[in-house]
Design brief:
354 residues, alpha/beta, six-stranded parallel sheet, five-stranded antiparallel sheet, 9 helices
């Protein structure tokens, strides 16, 4: 979502369109989207991003138009039962505070944040800023930065707002297959980076993998070294159905730090695969990292639907879920850290507070 907001604001600036940025700065109870979620609004009414599941977007868009006209930032509160100032409520029973600020000259108020990135390229980035409630949120990688509001009512002392943005997930697919092609397409819509690895030039040349971010025509051992290091948010999937190629991919993946390692195929072929890797000297603890057959049990053999089942399992694993039916569960539907970003700290100008 952040990428779409950044792109939209850039496009509107090029057109000379005025714009405003609305940001969820606080969540009370349950809410459709986490703190840090953003909605950009252009002067002609176009929007990008979201601050809720559509419940309060109309009111926020109207407030953004008012902010563009006045040049004065506003804070909106959408509370259970309706807010007396906005007359709006979230049907989920929770509440959100939304800061709406004008977008001026490609930034929000022209302030520059302090920024700290984790040492690992695959780790999250954090942006911390002060300056009278304005600042920026930084997306991991080379995709630019997005201004965002800090917590605080207009005229109050500056606050410090820390937003953590997850690194874009890398999906490494070994085997340029139909499933790899479908996974690349779905991963693109989720903002994941997809790397397809296959030493078989002729196979890769005819594979439907145009949506992949990168194609490496090499054996998995060498290819994985070229894109190392992989982090806890990344996945390596063996999809070729060729034992020599899949075994090589899994062997290399087990020696790395990818958070998810999986392989396609039948239960019988997976048992045989595990036996071969055990023969190569891998321990049971290492072998337990391999998810196979990968994917949720959807009862399908269609490549596109298999890809859906794999993506669903990856998302469930990222949020610590098993992927069962929501109707059969009794816990919270969304995880607290759902989404690609989360508010990790708010502090006054005098220092962090818990």
């Amino acid at each position: 979502m952040i990428r779409a907001v950044v792109d939209a604001l850039s496009d509107w600036a090029g057109e000379g369109q005025p714009a405003a940025l609305a940001t969820v700065v606080q969540v009370h109870g349950r809410a459709p989207l986490p703190a840090g979620s953003c909605l950009a609004v252009a002067g002609d009414g176009r929007t990008a991003g979201a601050v809720s599941g559509g419940c309060v977007e109309a009111e926020v868009v109207q407030a953004a138009q008012d902010v563009m006209a006045s040049g004065v930032a506003r804070r909106l509160r959408f509370a259970p039962g309706g807010d007396p100032l906005t007359g709006s409520a979230l049907p989920c029973g929770g509440g959100i505070d939304v800061w709406v600020q004008p977008w001026v000259g490609g930034s929000a108020g022209g302030e520059t944040p302090s920024e700290r990135r984790d040492d690992s390229d695959s780790g999250p980035s954090r942006a911390a800023f002060e300056q009278a409630g304005f600042g920026r949120a930084v997306r991991e990688g080379r995709e630019g930065a997005l201004p965002i509001a800090a917590d605080g009512w207009p005229g109050e002392a500056a606050e410090r707002f820390v937003l953590e943005v997850a690194a874009p997930a890398r999906l490494v697919l070994v085997g340029a297959s139909l499933v790899a092609g479908a996974l690349s397409t779905q991963a693109r819509s989720l903002g994941w980076s997809t790397v397809v690895i296959d030493p078989r030039t002729a196979v890769a040349a005819h594979a439907p993998i145009s949506d992949a971010t990168q194609l490496i025509l090499d054996w998995p051992e060498q290819a994985l070294l070229r894109i190392a290091p992989l982090g806890s948010g990344d996945a390596v999937l063996a999809l070729s159905h060729q034992p020599a190629l899949d075994d090589a991919a899994l062997s290399a993946a087990l020696l790395g730090e990818a958070g998810f390692v999986g392989a396609i195929g039948s239960r019988r072929s997976h048992a045989e695969r595990i036996a071969r890797l055990r023969g190569r000297g891998f321990t049971e603890r290492q072998l337990d990292r391999i998810v196979g057959p990968v994917g949720l049990d959807l009862g399908t053999s269609d490549p596109a639907e298999i890809a859906v089942s794999i993506v669903a399992e990856l998302i469930a694993a990222r949020h610590g879920r098993t992927g069962g039916r929501l109707s059969a569960g009794d816990g919270p539907i969304g995880s607290e850290a759902s989404g690609r970003y989360r508010l990790v700290a708010l502090a006054s100008a005098r220092g962090l507070r818990s």
